[in-house]
Amino acid sequence: MDIRIEVHHWRRTFFLAMLLAAAVFLFHAMVLLEATRLLNDVHSWLAARHGPQNAGRILIPMCFIILFITHVLESLAWAIFIWRRKLIDTLGESLYYTTTSITALGYGDVVQPPPWRMLGPLVAINGVLMFGCSTAFLFLVLQKVWMHL
């Protein structure tokens, strides 16, 4: 392969990866904002019908489910990107790689050759930011529930 084509492919892939990181962050922010509105409405409805203690018992698992599905979808978006760029042969292997990267677990049993190796830390940075936002969101939900006990 011509070195110019390889460098162009490398730059294009990293540019697209940065766009994907921004898109995943925007998706995450939109989910959190919409979940805030939804959970606030649901909490009021549940508290009126079942009392504040029971509302919190239902609201917290709902929050966990929303966050779990959101993180799975974000990992899947990265997996599809890496698989479609032909950086990993199968979608399953790509999902395993992105999930271990996005959670910063990083087993290291699936690694990219240079220069693609830098995608792992990029996915991990994106994941740490997303999990940080989710943690802050979950803290606010728990705080709201505790205030109504």
Could you characterize the architecture of this molecule?
The relative contact order is 0.15. The chain is 82% helix and 0% strand. With 149 residues, it is mostly helical.
Layout of SSEs?
Blueprint: H1 3-50, H2 52-84, H3 91-102, H4 119-147
Give a quick rundown of the structure:
With 149 residues, this protein is mainly α.
Amino-to-carboxy terminus distance? 66 Å
Count of β-strands: 0
Which structural class fits the helix and strand makeup? Answer: mainly alpha
Which radius of gyration do the C-alpha atoms yield?
19 Å
Helix content: over 70%
Order of SSEs, N→C? Answer: HHHH
How many H/I helices? 4
Any key phrases for this structure?
mainly alpha; 4 helices; single chain
